[in-house]
Design goal:
Length: about 270
């Protein structure tokens, strides 16, 4: 599947739910809430139907996101059924890690290939300030459980924030090095303004190489993170929504005043 700029589109990020057990300020700003009614969210079977069609059109990799994907009811059965689909080469998941420890072994047995864990700091006070929850120990337990059951590599996604001192990032780097975790810094982004923070290792997204579409939990297909256009699978039908999102994917994004990160999954 190729878009109008000859980019091969073979990667689908799937936001299973807009619900989250944390409230990180850069993802769900103060005053916002994840209030999409259950009736408006795609069911497990609807998600599978979308991914089946996407695979027929050329998608080869799928990443499950949220909100927090481990809050999705039936996550283990969803992983099992997705892994049985012909054409799926990789199934991964991005989680905040809080709920991962008791599910890690079952996720591995269900067929999940890889896991990324969002962790901006190992400083307890800063973690609570960013997320509004004192859940750092549970994240550490989730990381340990993921390693124990054999997920490899385990990537740590850290949003580079001005409020975190440089020495805290050095401690995070040591933490990851000691445990064999792959640390990846991510720019803080403002979708509405179309801006990125500046970090030495960031590339602000290389639009010329973008190979992804996004399925939101309400059935919208987004062709671009920094663009407001969506194509809903319930309104247009699955195949037409996917094809339109691919064909009309912009050459580069500018800004997106429509959604927040917790609704899109990054």
């Amino acid at each position: 599947m190729y878009d109008g700029y000859h980019r091969r589109i073979d990667y689908l990020r799937v936001s299973l739910t807009d619900r989250c057990n944390l409230q990180c300020h850069y993802c769900m700003p103060k005053g916002k809430n994840n209030n999409l009614a259950v009736v408006d969210q795609l069911s497990k079977d609807e998600i599978i139907s979308v991914i089946k069609e996407a695979l027929q059109l050329g998608i080869r990799r799928v990443r499950l996101t949220g909100g927090e994907p481990l809050l999705f009811k039936g996550i283990l059965q969803l992983v099992r059924e997705l892994k049985s689909l012909q054409g799926l080469e990789e199934l991964s998941l991005t989680s905040n890690g809080v709920l991962l420890s008791p599910l890690a072994e079952d996720l591995k047995e269900a067929g999940l290939d890889r896991v990324n864990i969002s962790l901006d700091t190992i400083n307890r006070d800063l973690y609570k300030q960013i997320t509004t929850e004192d859940a750092l120990d549970r994240v550490f337990q989730g990381i340990d459980a993921a390693k124990k059951v054999g997920f490899d590599p385990i990537k740590i996604n850290a949003v580079h924030l001005d409020l975190i001192p440089k020495e805290e990032y050095l401690l995070l780097e040591d933490f990851c090095n000691q445990r064999g975790l792959q640390l990846r810094y991510i720019e803080e982004m403002n979708l509405a303004q179309g801006t990125f923070s500046v970090i030495s290792s960031g590339n602000r997204g290389d639009c010329s190489k973008c190979n992804r579409l996004r399925l939101l939990s309400n059935g919208d297909i987004k062709p671009c993170l920094f663009h407001g256009d969506v194509y809903n699978v319930k309104e247009l039908g699955i195949k037409q929504a996917l094809e339109k999102a691919c064909q009309l994917k912009p050459q580069r994004g500018i800004k997106n005043p429509r959604e927040e990160f917790y609704q899109i999954g990054g």
